[in-house]
Amino acid sequence: MKAEIKRSAVWTILDIVLMALLAAILMLQKELMSFLPNISLTVFLMLLYAKCLGFTRTAVIVTVYLLLDSVIWGSLNPIFTTAQWIGWMLGPLLYCTAFKKTENNIVLAFAAALAALLYCWVMIVPTALLYTNQIGTLGAYILIDIPWEAILAISGFVPTLLLYEPLAKLMRKLLARMRQL
Amino acid sequence: MKNKKLTIILAVVAVLALACILWLTLGGGIAKDDGHITVTVQDKDGKVLAEKKIGYKEGDKLADLVKNNFSNVTYEDSGYGPMIMTIESLTTPADWSSYISILYNGEYAQVGIGSLEFKDGDKIDFVDTVYIPAS
Q1: Do B62 and B118 touch, CB atoms closer than 8 A?
Q2: Would you place residue B37 in the very low, low, confident or very high pLDDT band (cuts 50, 70, 90)?
Q3: CB–CB of B25/A148 below 8 Å?
Q4: What is residue B53's three-state secondary structure?
Q5: Pairing with B35, which of A170, A179, B69, B111 sits 20 to 30 Å away (CA)?
C-alpha cells in the first residue's frame, strides 16, 4: 500500500491512454446513473483518481469529463462551466494537499462529502449570476438546494467509505503492473 | 476490526439519511386532505385556454389529477420527478425555445409537479413561457 508509484513529469502514451480511459469511465457512470437524482460515483471516482494518479492527471481527467458532460447536457457556458470546473477541482486539490497522507477510508469519506458540498456552494455563484431571475430569489435556490447538496455529499461519502480501500489497492496494483510493461 | 465496524455503522446511517432526504424531497405532490383546487392552462399572453375546478381526495397525486382532467397531458421523467411537457394545446418544442411554467397561487412554483404540495382552495396555472437564454 505504501509503495509510492513514481510519477514522471513527462506523460507517456500510457498516461494519455489511461487518462482518456478514466475520463470515459467517469462520464459513463454519470450517464448510467443519470436516472437517479443527484446520485453518482463522480465524487468518489475523482477522489480515487486524485489519490492514485495525483493532482495534475486528475485535473486533466476532470477537465475532459466536464467538457463532455457540458456538451451532452447542454450546459456549456463560460460562466457556468468555469464555475463547475473550479467546483470539481476543489476536491482533487483537497485530496492532494490536506488529505495527501491520509489513507483512512473514514477520513476520506468525510473529505469526499466536504468536496461535494464545496462544489455545490461554488455553484451558487453562477446560479446567482445567471438564473436567479428565473428561479425567483437566490434565497429560495439556496434553501431548495440543501437536500440536493446532502444527497451529493452522501453519494460521495458512502462509496468512499465502502469502496476506497479495495479499489485504491487494485488501481495502484494495476498501475504498477502497467508501468512494468 | 474497530474501523470495519465504524465503517459499516457510518454506511448504514448515511444510506438511511439518503433514503429520508429522497423521501422528503421527492415525496410531495400528494394531497393531505380532501378539497378543491383550480387549475388553468394559459398561453404566452396569459390568455386562459382552459380552466377547471378539480375535486380531490386525501392521497391523490397532483400529476394524476392534472392528467385525468385535462387533455394531451404528457410528462417526461427527468430523474428529478416528472416534468410536464404538454397540456391541452401547449407543447414544449424540441429546441426548448419555450416551456410550461407552473404557477402556484400566482407565483412560480419552487418544485416540480411531482413534489408540489397543495391544499384546498389553491390555484395552479400552467403557463406557456418563452425561454430566456442565460447571458
Answers
A1: yes
A2: very high
A3: yes
A4: strand
A5: B111
Residue A130's pLDDT is what? 75
Q: Which residues of B touch A (CB under 8 A)?
A: 3, 6-7, 10-11, 14-15, 17-18, 21-22, 24-26, 77, 79-81, 107-108, 110-111, 132, 134-135
Beta bridge partners of B107: B104
Q: β-strands B107-108, B82-87: how paired?
A: unpaired
| For A142, nearest residue in chain B (alpha carbons) | B110
What sign has the CA pseudo-torsion B17, B22, B25, B28? Answer: negative
Grid cell locating A167? 479499489
Residue of A nearest to B5 (CA): A106
Does residue A105 surpass a pLDDT of 50? yes
Nearest chain A Cα distance for residue B8, angstroms: 8
Other beta carbons less than 10 A from residue B135's beta carbon: 7
- Greater model confidence, B29 or B92: B92
Cβ contact, residue pair B107, A136, below 8 Å? yes
Write phi, then psi, for A113 (nearest 5 degrees).
Answer: -65, -40
Domains contained in chain B, CATH given: 35-130 (2.170.130.30)
Mean pLDDT, to the nearest integer, of B6-27? 89
Distance from CA of A147 to the nearest CA of B (A): 6
Q: Give mean pLDDT, residues B85-106.
A: 91
Q: Which amino acid is at A72?
A: I
Q: Residues 17-76, chain A: which have Cβ within 8 Å of B? A: 34-39
Report the alpha-carbon angle A100-A102-A106, nearest 5.
135
Delineate the domains of chain A, giving CATH numbers in brackets.
13-180 (1.10.1760.20)
Query: What is the residue-averaged pLDDT of chain A?
Result: 89
